[in-house]
Design a protein that fits this description.
The chain is 30% helix and 24% strand. The protein has seven helices and twelve strands. It has helices at 32-43, 58-67, 83-91, 112-125, 165-171, 183-188, 209-218, and strands at residues 2-8, 26-27, 30-31, 48-53, 75-78, 98-104, 127-132, 138-142, 145-149, 156-157, 161-164, 196-198. It is globular. The structure holds cytidine-5'-monophosphate. The site of cytidine-5'-monophosphate (C5P) has 16 residues, from α3.
């Protein structure tokens, strides 16, 4: 079956307080985004890789590719104003029917096992997204008070989120809604049931400067 990954890296990363978006920052010898792309190449040498970038930084990405002699072949697309719009731009480059993973460019610590679990379940059941259990106790703020939340019923959602290409293309024809925080929420709007598989704890979304320190120390150990 034909396999694709759309790595979305079209965001400007305002929470990082850095001049360049977090996906381009160097960690362990190369850009965060290069580490992320390499995870998928390692999973499947034949996977077709589509990278969505901020339109204004596409030239900068070319410079980085040259600087680091980055060898992994991939197509690029210019992103849009939200993650939803960026994914949509990536989907336009998919021509064959198969499975597509959508993955945040700022999650370089995804394990090969997590990627494999998502593709395996999506191959049998049409879609799969990785989740982990929250390690902390949880509380819900209500009015001016708060109350404990039963964490056994709560999961934290990661990427890659893997779907049949026909299904996700159809779902992304919908108009954008602010509730679309990931790809699963877009498909759910079409009454599609989402399958959960186990993610990996280290698969953090690099968001703050502290996350970069965690990534730097873990990146060599992720199998
Ligand atoms: O902003 P957030 O942390 O949710 O971004 C998750 C991923 O989506 C990041 O990899 C970011 O680069 C990407 N993104 C995008 N286009 C946007 C906004 C975010 O590709 N307009």
């Amino acid at each position: 079956m034909k396999t694709y990954v759309i790595v979305v890296a079209g965001g400007s990363g305002e929470r990082m307080k850095s001049d360049i978006p977090k996906q381009f920052i160097e960690v362990a010898g190369k850009s965060v985004l290069m580490h992320t792309i390499e995870r998928f190449r390692l999973f499947d040498n034949n996977i077709e890789i589509i990278v969505v970038l901020p339109e204004s930084l596409m030239g900068y990405w070319d410079e980085l590719r040259e600087k680091y002699a980055f060898p992994v072949p991939h197509k690029t697309a210019a992103g849009g104003p939200t993650r939803f719009h960026s994914v949509k731009k990536g989907l336009e480059l998919i021509s064959e029917t198969g499975l597509v993973a959508v993955h945040d460019g700022v999650r370089p610590l995804v394990s090969i096992d997590t990627i494999a679990r998502c593709f395996k379940t999506a191959a049998g059941r049409g879609n799969a997204i990785p989740v982990v259990s929250p390690p902390d106790s949880l509380r819900m703020i209500s009015g001016d008070g708060n109350k404990p939340l039963d964490r056994t019923g709560i999961k934290l959602v990661q990427t890659p989120q893997v779907f049949c290409t026909d299904l996700i293309k159809k779902a992304f024809l919908q108009d954008y809604r602010p509730e679309f925080t990931d790809d699963a929420t877009v498909l759910e709007m079409m009454k599609i049931r989402i399958n959960l598989v186990e993610g990996n704890r280290e698969n953090i979304k690099i968001t703050t400067p502290e996350d970069l320190i965690i990534a730097e120390s873990l990146i060599k150990d992720i199998a």
